[in-house]
Specification:
This protein is an all-beta fold. Helix content is 0%, strand content 51%. It has strands at 9-19, 24-29, 34-38, 54-61, 67-74.
Length: 75
């Protein structure tokens, strides 16, 4: 959920990239859109996730004017 409390919608997808050193990753949504995320939004608190993992996430407005993934959990 964003600071304003706005969640655009929930979605499913697969982690296509994740760099543990920077904490940055990307999810390919089932809708074909790629959503960036940071390790701090991984809901279980581990701050790491395997590339190829099936996930569920919230689509939220991002800091740079694009959609981002939040509340990422393994599906």
């Amino acid at each position: 959920m964003t600071a304003s409390g706005r969640v655009e919608h929930k979605a499913r997808g697969r982690v296509t990239s994740f760099d543990a050193a920077t904490g940055l990753g990307e999810i390919a949504g089932a809708d074909g859109v790629f959503y960036p995320f940071h390790s701090t939004v991984i809901a279980d608190g581990t701050r790491t996730i395997a590339v190829g993992a099936e996930v569920e996430f919230e689509v939220v407005p991002g800091h740079l004017g694009r959609w981002e993934a939040a509340a990422v959990v393994a599906a």
